[in-house]
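User
Class, as today's exercise, I want you to study this protein, comparing sequence with structure tokens, and judge whether sequence predicts the tokens.
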Amino acid sequence: MFRRLALLACLSLPLPVLAASFAGTTAGGLSASSGSTSAAAKVVRAARDDAAAYVASDGRIRGARLEAALRSLRESGDAARRASDMELARAILAQ
């Protein structure tokens, strides 16, 4: 039930502009150009449920997978370092 509510809450939110700026990066593409999935992309993909809970709870629920994905994204580029946790969580959900 919570998962369904979290998903509905996420769908009602506007998609962040940040997601578009991640296009072509590990965060945006979620896969390497060679077709093999990088370790960072797997971490980000695994964080979708945690990101949904984070967004739906307005930042009150922070799962371990989301924390790992945020660290991974911030290591990948300047745009992610400047983004808030909420912007990154929404970008994860937009993938």
